[in-house]
Design a protein that fits this description.
By secondary structure, the protein is mainly alpha-helical. It has a single domain, classed as Four Helix Bundle (Hemerythrin (Met), subunit A), CATH 1.20.120. It is about 70% helix and about 0% strand. The chain contains 5 helices and no strands. Helix 3 packs antiparallel against helix 4 and helix 4 packs antiparallel against helix 5.
Length: about 200
């Protein structure tokens, strides 16, 4: 994790500093879908982020349904395990590729945005702490529900309440990070692709 100002941490800030958003003003978000250069890397990046958003909403909704009795533990368990495993595993992989390859490459191509990549790198550290916490709470819920399904006594409702709180905090952090990462990186890809169609 990079050492950054506390006000710029992902769980505090309301967006990236204005000095990092020059390219976003040049390539505003509401015009991305109509940009012919939004293919390949940029398109894949947005698709991956949308998968994370969709999984996060699905997991939050199904956990609420479990807590409020609209779904049974038997129905909930396999879907929850699959979706949560996919979300946390894919996030971990995505962030490793960004940290090891894309962020250093992009920062070298646009040194004036280095502060932005430091902020995003710091986000990853915070998010990975949240992934660990969310994974722990998820395993506790799976164990409690498995006990109920097999007839053993378990305190699944209490664990589900705790998990719901973890998911709510995780969602806020993740969505802030995804929004800011897109605001920095997608305009940079569009700008660089304009100058070099083979930019990766």
């Amino acid at each position: 994790m990079k050492d950054i100002d506390k006000a710029l941490t992902v769980d505090v800030r309301n967006g990236l500093p204005d000095e990092l958003l020059g390219l976003l003003r040049k390539f505003p978000r509401d015009q991305w879908a109509n940009d012919a250069r939004l293919h390949g890397l940029a398109e894949g990046w947005l698709q991956r982020h949308n998968l994370f958003r969709e999984l996060s909403v699905l997991i939050g909704g199904m956990t609420t349904d479990l807590r409020e009795g609209r779904t049974s533990p038997t129905t909930f368990l396999p879907l929850f395990q699959r979706r949560m495993g996919l979300l946390l595993g894919e996030l971990d992989t995505h962030h490793r590729v960004e940290d090891d390859y894309y962020f250093p490459s992009f920062a070298a191509a646009a040194p004036k945005l280095q502060k932005g990549f430091d902020i995003l790198d710091n986000d990853h550290g915070v998010i990975h702490g949240a992934i660990y916490s969310l994974g722990t709470a998820s395993r506790e819920l799976i164990a409690a529900l498995s006990g109920e399904v097999s007839g053993r006594d378990g305190d699944a409702l209490r664990v589900a309440e705790r998990l719901a709180g973890e998911i709510e905090g995780f969602d806020r952090t993740l969505l802030r990070h995804l929004q800011d990462e897109e605001a920095l990186i997608i305009p940079l890809i569009l700008e660089r692709t304009r100058d070099d169609p083979n930019f990766r």
